[in-house]
Write a structure and sequence with these properties.
The termini are far apart. With about 190 residues, the protein is mostly beta strands. The model is unreliable at about 1-30 (pLDDT under 50). The chain has one helix at about 10, and strands at about 5, 20, 25, 35-40, 45, 55, 65, 75-80, 85-90, 95-100. A 5-stranded antiparallel β-sheet has the order 6-7-8-9-10, with no helix packed on it. Strands 1-4-5 form a 3-stranded mixed β-sheet. A hairpin with a 5-residue loop joins β7 (about 65) and β8 (about 75-80).
Length: about 190
């Protein structure tokens, strides 16, 4: 079996975690074929000795940390104050993204689509939705709203239709209908 030794920068950039002097090389595409021996920064590594963790510093004080030493491979961008701003965990089910920042803006000039088995939104201080166009809810099952406070609904015209079955109104106290005219069975 021949042992290939990589010593020039162009070849070394094809291998993750390789270094030349102070420069850390991150390839655009990673070759899965590693040679038996890699020489980098004056050191010689066997395939088993190739570093599995890397840290790349940015001028802002933030840094990128790559850790492949655990069961899951993790890529993190850590802010200058030590807070994790973005974490990508490579799991058996696929990548998991976690943003931990003061705010997150997603902007697109076109369509934004999210598709999943389950979507959960939780906010500690409120949720606001706004559109200049129409809003459509299509629900294949039941639609249940549980609200601790009051519910107010305002529109030019409101229609309530039960395609099959009753319209049930239940109140602990009075039921009030207030209109110019109350028309029943018309």
């Amino acid at each position: 079996m021949s042992r290939e030794v990589v010593s020039d920068k162009a070849k070394l950039e094809a291998y993750p975690g390789s270094e030349i002097g102070e420069t850390t090389c991150l390839p655009e595409t990673v070759s899965t074929e590693l040679p038996d021996v890699i020489e980098a920064a004056g050191k010689t590594y066997t395939r088993e000795e190739i570093p599995v963790s890397q840290k790349i510093s940015f001028r802002s004080g933030s840094y990128l940390e790559i850790d492949g030493s655990q069961d899951e491979e993790v890529l993190q961008i850590i802010g200058s104050g030590g807070e994790v701003e973005l974490k990508i965990r490579m799991t058996a089910e696929g990548p998991v993204l976690c943003f931990e920042s003061a705010s997150l803006d997603i902007r697109a000039s076109g369509k934004v689509s999210i598709e999943s088995q389950h979507i959960s939104l939780k906010a500690s201080h409120g949720i606001s939705m706004e559109t200049s166009g129409d809003m459509v809810h299509n629900v294949g099952g039941d639609h249940i709203s549980k609200i601790d406070g009051d519910v107010s609904s305002e529109a030019r015209i409101q229609n309530i239709t039960a395609r099959l079955g009753n319209v049930n109104v239940k109140a602990n106290d009075d039921v009030r209908l207030n209109g110019e005219r109350i028309m029943m069975n018309c």
